[in-house]
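Task: sequence in, structure out. Protein: 4-hydroxy-tetrahydrodipicolinate synthase.
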Amino acid sequence: MSQRRGSSFAGLSVAIATPFRDGEVDYPRLKEQLEYQLAAGTTCVVPVGTTGESPTLTHDEHEKVIAETIQTVAGRAKVMAGTGSNSTAEALRLTKRAEKEGADATLQVAPYYNKPTQEGFYQHYKAVAEAVSIPVCVYNIPGRSAANIEVETIQRLSEVDGIVMVKEATGKMDACSEILGTTDLTVLSGDDSLTIPMMSVGAEGIISVVGNVVPADMLAMVKAYASGDFATALQWHHKLFALCRNMLGLATNPIPVKAAMQLVGRDTGELRLPMTPLDDAGMEKLTATLKQYGLLS
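Result:
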């Protein structure tokens, strides 16, 4: 198969956690976190996805976080703006605004709560793709959105101009294989711990949560695999595995990653309700994981 349509986004994308201080978005801290990503060589940053607590940001905050991200990054990496919604009209408005601000692509989460039919998914994504000229990444995460975008629907969507990527977070390797075998879409892993397994069947990288904490290590793993150095990639996979599992398994994302960022001094750890801090048992396990990895003494 010829080069995949979204392959310019291959590598490490990091789903940026939105920092808060005293209930407000902490924009100076956001800039610090973006500079940390740029220094590590992160390919693409993804503001206001699920990790960025998009459901609890106001519309003004949502737009400002994207704008501040684009201005800070200033072309030094790509910016894939999280502008999805369970309302097609709202997704269109947010995406058009992000395009106007200079976003390089849009991450479109599956409309949540509504539980659209497969035709509803198709029409939703088609409407977004036809309204803007920036590339669209379809984000399939049934565990958070309550409905799965079936492979057949993704195959249909692959024929829509502008839809070039899938963030595949179903945890189903068969779905990943089928998408890659039947379309020219770029697939990016939506689960940190499945990055190498998914790359082994043709995925080209990861939209990472753990990358908020160890972007250089995640990038080293992805680059090693992409260059054919499978032994090194596997070493990184095993080193990162416990960190990846606990960052996504101890509690709902982004609770554990924000706790980890607080422990290593990169965030206040503040969340917005209904998200609540990691409990004592979870914090104990996370602290042990970070110590084992070498991030805490």
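Residues 7-227 form a domain with the TIM Barrel fold (CATH 3.20.20.70).
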